[in-house]
TrEMBL record, chains A, B:
It holds the Pfam family MerR-DNA-bind. This is MerR family DNA-binding transcriptional regulator. One of its GO terms (molecular function) is DNA binding. PANTHER family: HTH-TYPE TRANSCRIPTIONAL REGULATOR YFMP, REDOX-CYCLING DRUG-SENSING TRANSCRIPTIONAL ACTIVATOR SOXR. The lineage of its organism: Bacteria, Bacillati, Actinomycetota, Actinomycetes, Micrococcales. It comes from Flexivirga caeni. Residues 9-76 form the HTH merR-type domain. Residues 91-121 form a coiled coil. Keywords: Coiled coil, DNA-binding, Transcription, Transcription regulation. Transmembrane segments: none annotated.
Amino acid sequence: MTTPDGHPTWTIAQLADEFEITHRTIRHYEELGLITPERRGTVRVFHRRDRTRLALILRGKRIGFPLDEIRTIIDMYDEQPGEVGQLHYLLEQIAERRVELEQRRADIEQTLRELAVVEERCHADLRTLRR
Amino acid sequence: MTTPDGHPTWTIAQLADEFEITHRTIRHYEELGLITPERRGTVRVFHRRDRTRLALILRGKRIGFPLDEIRTIIDMYDEQPGEVGQLHYLLEQIAERRVELEQRRADIEQTLRELAVVEERCHADLRTLRR
DNA sequence: CTTGACGTTGACGTAAACGTAAAGCACGAT
DNA sequence: ATCGTGCTTTACGTTTACGTCAACGTCAAG
């Protein structure tokens, strides 16, 4: 589906299908102000921007962020230049998110290392049992 | 606090303090079977094993796993050798967790890269504004 | 011996993130 | 004309992860 001026658009069902979520989920994100699809009459029309934001939301969820925090993160992507105070605030936010993300990455890597240990123990046990 | 045989133990308040969580949280984890402190009469006595599991639970939470999944993960650490079927099941579980963890790590790294871009744009805007 | 400090068990409350009907337009096809 | 398909809103239900009393036990100190 494309709009008269050549930009692609999506229906709620198409996006739900593509991202393997329900339309209810998409509506929920809209209620929370995470996406703001156009309305043609009563019907929602999703543009590329909405699709992108949806993808960002889902990635945020996979990482484990709450929707609330996800909004502040993806809103940073869209931020207009603005004034100096705004920019400094944004830089602060970025710094905070970075700390969180790096903490999470460290936790994940530690867990991966430990899983490797357990796995090796498993293989060792299997070798023992085979005799 | 130490037990007569020289092993250190903790009270619920000590662990709550140390990990900066509430006693209610600890009790919640016990209700879900994530930790099983000893009972001396009615009172909970936490051993090193409980403390370790608590730390693992909190790390799992930081990563973003639900408590349910956290249990299956930390239970793997304690798994006794067992029989061949068990071991293969455990290896399967490990493989699944690894996939999840690597997906999350990739998501985090992607987000970190994008934040860096936004950050650079911020700095550029600031430089522009200074003239 | 009563007063705290710390422990315990219910049991109801709440916030987040949707699930799940129920009921109703709109519109193209039969 | 009505039937199905897809979209809509309204609104209550559910799960997870605890928060928050309330009410009571226990033990050392004053």
